[in-house]
Amino acid sequence: MVIGHDQCKNLHQEAFLVYDGAILPHEFNEATKSSLNALMATMMKTCSSLSDATCRPQEMKELHKTDVQHLSAEQQKPHADMKLYIPFDVYVYDAFDDKDVNFRFMLEESINYPSYLYNRKAPIRLPQVDRLTFKYPPSPLLSQPESVPKGMLCSDDCRRRKFCECLHVIHTPLNVTLDIVLVNEGHGSNHSSTFHLHGYNFLVLGSESLGRPIDVAEIQLSDSHGLLSRNLVDAPRKDTVVVPSKGYAIIRLFTDNPGSWLFEARSTSSVIGGGMQFIVQVGEQTHLPPVPSDFPRCGDHKKPIFVF
């Protein structure tokens, strides 16, 4: 499930993972290295790509501990209480100017463009979640939600613009079984993406590459007809998942940890930009402990002359 890009595409390394207290069948020696090489050769032969049926990540299994006698409650349920379908892709935009997005600020009476979009006249390839570019809030959502401008949140008005950069927050109730289906549509890229969720671990119920560009509506329809398989027996538990190119990954979690949790892409290739993120807000502000009266407050610390 690991592939290198660009200068790293031909690199090959191996490691021996040993848990405390494990009994080693043999020492790590040249014979072991030889057997690892043979295993790698077999894998490369049968798993030439993630779209190969013998290489599907849903074949991954959880290694049960001897003291675990029952499945977790969320894994036993045949249907989740709530489903989210999250599409992402790399999109091509024409050159930007100030009427499309205002990234400038004033410093000593001169205009500066710190954005990754500055002075680019050629078409730009941007990775986005649901055609939205994530914009970090000026203050913490947990302790200062009142300091975050409402106009900064993603909205239909923002979506109607040529380019939408906003604070992307998805609300979920507290204490529900949630399935998130990450859809790598693959119209603008042939690369898989790695996503990491803060504040939780989750079950990877299934993953598959269809080998062609797709869209989230197609995946949602297939799921409604029961065509997306879910491993409800021994799915691995992770906090990071690889979403294959032109495919999807299904993760499941139980929303018992209230707060605003960042879900972020940890890998993109051959693109520019701030990457792909969104926030999963679990529960309401009332579900969180009160903010201490002496808790530090912070903001963007920009002088009045700053435009953004």
Automatic annotation (TrEMBL):
<protein>
    <recommendedName>
        <fullName>Plastocyanin-like domain-containing protein</fullName>
    </recommendedName>
</protein>
<dbReference type="GO" id="GO:0005886">
    <property type="term" value="C:plasma membrane"/>
</dbReference>
<dbReference type="InterPro" id="IPR045087">
    <property type="entry name" value="Cu-oxidase_fam"/>
</dbReference>
<dbReference type="GO" id="GO:0016491">
    <property type="term" value="F:oxidoreductase activity"/>
</dbReference>
<dbReference type="InterPro" id="IPR008972">
    <property type="entry name" value="Cupredoxin"/>
</dbReference>
<dbReference type="GO" id="GO:0006826">
    <property type="term" value="P:iron ion transport"/>
</dbReference>
<dbReference type="Pfam" id="PF07731">
    <property type="entry name" value="Cu-oxidase_2"/>
</dbReference>
<dbReference type="GO" id="GO:0005507">
    <property type="term" value="F:copper ion binding"/>
</dbReference>
<keyword id="KW-0186">Copper</keyword>
<keyword id="KW-0560">Oxidoreductase</keyword>
<feature type="domain" description="Plastocyanin-like">
    <location>
        <begin position="155"/>
        <end position="264"/>
    </location>
</feature>
<dbReference type="InterPro" id="IPR011706">
    <property type="entry name" value="Cu-oxidase_C"/>
</dbReference>
<keyword id="KW-0479">Metal-binding</keyword>
